[in-house]
Amino acid sequence: MGVAWCTVFVVLVLKSVVFVDGGSTSSFVRKDEKAIDMPLDSDVFVAPAGYNAPQQVHITQGDHVGKAMIVSWVTMDEPGSNTVYYWSQNSKKKMKAKGMVTTYSFYNYTSGFIHHCNITHLKHDTKYYYMVGIGHTTRTFWFMTPPEVGPDVPYTFGLIGDLGQSYDSNITLTHYEMNPTKGKTVLFVGDLSYADNYPNHDNNRWDSWGRFVERSVAYQPWIWTAGNHELDYAPEIGEEEPFKPFTHRYHVPYKSSQSTAPFWYSIKRASAYIIVLASYSAYGKYTPQYKWLEKELPKVNRTETPWLIVLLHAPWYNSYNYHYMEGESMRVMYEAWFVKYKVDVVFAGHVHAYERSERVSNIAYNIVTGICQPVKDQSAPVYITIGDGGNLEGLANNMTEPQPEYSAYREASFGHATFDIKNRTHAYYGWHRNQDGYAVTADTMWFYNRFWNPENESTST
Ligand SMILES: *[C@@H]1O[C@H](CO)[C@@H](O)[C@H](O)[C@H]1NC(C)=O
Ligand SMILES: *[C@@H]1O[C@H](CO)[C@@H](O)[C@H](O)[C@H]1NC(C)=O
Ligand SMILES: *[C@@H]1O[C@H](CO)[C@@H](O)[C@H](O)[C@H]1NC(C)=O
Ligand SMILES: *[C@@H]1O[C@H](CO)[C@@H](O)[C@H](O)[C@H]1NC(C)=O
Ligand SMILES: *[C@@H]1O[C@H](CO)[C@@H](O)[C@H](O)[C@H]1NC(C)=O
Ligand SMILES: *[C@@H]1O[C@H](CO)[C@@H](O)[C@H](O)[C@H]1NC(C)=O
Ligand SMILES: *[C@@H]1O[C@H](CO)[C@@H](O)[C@H](O)[C@H]1NC(C)=O
Ligand SMILES: [Fe+2]
Fold it and tell me: Which residues form the Purple acid phosphatase C-terminal domain (predicted)?
């Protein structure tokens, strides 16, 4: 706590003195050292014991409203069973659901047997146990289903991006798990394993990543966004099918929102409506993603789901000297819609640092007016870059100076965030840096819902 207050104090003092142009650049300077991947024989990568034991167990929402869950796992020795047994906490009656199994090869790598099973007709707000690996070695896990969708349902999301599998990634995940603001579902903004940084995109690093994050994602759903490290496009070694490892390993409920591809889709969860967009799929006019989003935004009923959250990978507002303009063409296509439909917040990754924007828009431009400065706009979302999971590529610490006016807070540290919805009008957001104690927030903001409570927020930290 002491560290946080001290930082806040220093930042506020600095703000008035030095950074007259924008918000605050944190005075916290992280030790600059390269993030190193954990070696394959690390404790976090150990495969479970037993013949054909299910590994890399992970779950995600399976339908549009949270009454289904996709359970996925990998068996290495043989296909084994596709069946999941599951039962609610208050009932001894075991139910079962049958899934499917798939494999893929990538250059000279052949995957294990990847199982996906959609468990349906679940009751809301209920603890379920589930068991996978029927036949030889079984493993049992549990999850909570979300409450029924409704406007005042409190719910807490975690935010993690660009995680990878370095020692820093492990610290980020540990801090998320230990955060007293218990996240119930992770909104993951893309770039999962960084296997593509290895020679021939060594897909064993997809497997090790699956084992690493199992300790969280087997117990609570992670909502997936595709980043550039999911592309695995490598024609030089004959791999020309983009997203091959990602789409075989991670299923998402895209059909439930009438999407035609697993890279853009939506779900409702508690009082939130979450739209996942694809920075690396076509989004120009007439493309499937464009037509889908055009139809999707008017469907959001803020009386049912007050909180409208968008996830995408390449940020639209970014004041670091990395990935310049990479999110720009998508911003040009969609930003006016986000303002029109009053999106509450947009979470992105890609830039390996943290940044939170003011509510700004930049939609007035045309070639005649030449108006091309972002302006304060109370109908606009807050843009948050949370690409600070801690992957092996290290931190982005080179910032544009002076800090632009749209940038409210920025800091080059690894961390994670939580978005804690209280009711239809209020949500408490907090970003945590890995160097602090688990309960310490380094940047916070009370979000006022853009539909129910469109008042100016105080954005000072
Ligand atoms: C795949 O190829 C790489 C380099 O060409 C080699 O080091 C590795 O052992 C091969 N793996 C398999 C499973 O053959
Ligand atoms: C990863 O973090 C967990 C939980 O803090 C710890 O038990 C484990 O030893 C760590 N592993 C590595 C390789 O850092
Ligand atoms: C899972 O089942 C639900 C309920 O039948 C269905 O709406 C949804 O589309 C299914 N999801 C997947 C990924 O098959
Ligand atoms: C929006 O949701 C509310 C609450 O569920 C419902 O009463 C209303 O009919 C919905 N509006 C539309 C246009 O579907
Ligand atoms: C709210 O903020 C806008 C710009 O961000 C400003 O023009 C307006 O005066 C503010 N309103 C109040 C009530 O503070
Ligand atoms: C930071 O980025 C700017 C713009 O790309 C570049 O000119 C400068 O050399 C960089 N500074 C460092 C320390 O890398
Ligand atoms: C919504 O939550 C905020 C923050 O906890 C609280 O101040 C406010 O009174 C709540 N509104 C209602 C209607 O309960
Ligand atoms: Fe990225």
Answer: 380-439
Q: Find, among 221, 224, 220, 184, the residue nearest to 420 by Cα.
A: 184
Cα(24)–Cα(13) distance, rounded to whole angstroms? 10
Rounded to 5 degrees, what are φ and ψ at 290?
Answer: -60, -50
> Which domains does the chain carry?
153-190+263-460 (3.60.21.10)
Closest CA to 309 of 382, 257, 363, 244: 382
Element (H, E) at 211: helix 204-217
456 close to ligand 5 (CB < 6 Angstrom): yes
Q: Residue 151's closest CA among 381, 446, 378, 451?
A: 451
Judge if the beta carbon of residue 423 lies within 6 A of ligand 7: yes
Catalytic residues: 323
Quote the percentage of the chain above a pLDDT of 90.
89
The DSSP code for 204 is H
- Written as one string, the DSSP assignment of 389-416 is S--TT-----B-SSPPTTEEEEE---EE
What pLDDT score was predicted for residue 32? Answer: 67
The closest ligand to the CA of 166 turns out to be: 2
Q: Kindly identify the ligand whose nearest atom is closest to the C-alpha of 198.
A: 1
pLDDT tens per residue, range 382-427: 999 999 999 999 999 999 999 999 999 999 999 999 999 999 999 9
Rounded to two decimals, the pTM is 0.94
The DSSP code sequence of 324-371 is: TTTTHHHHHHHHHHHHHTT--EEEE-SSSSEEEE-SEE-----TTT--
CB atoms inside a 10 Å sphere around CB 402: 14
378 lines ligand 5 (CB under 6 A): yes
| CB distance 35 to 391 below 8 Å | yes
Question: How far, in Å, from the CA of 261 to the mean position of ligand 3?
Answer: 15
Ligand 8 centroid, distance to 135 Cα (angstroms): 40
Q: Which of 317, 307, 273 is nearest to 293 (CA)?
A: 273
- Decide if 387 contacts 189 (C-beta within 8 A): yes
Instruction: Compute, in angstroms, the gap from residue 386 CA to the centroid of ligand 4.
Output: 33
Q: How far is CA 242 from the centre of its chain?
A: 20
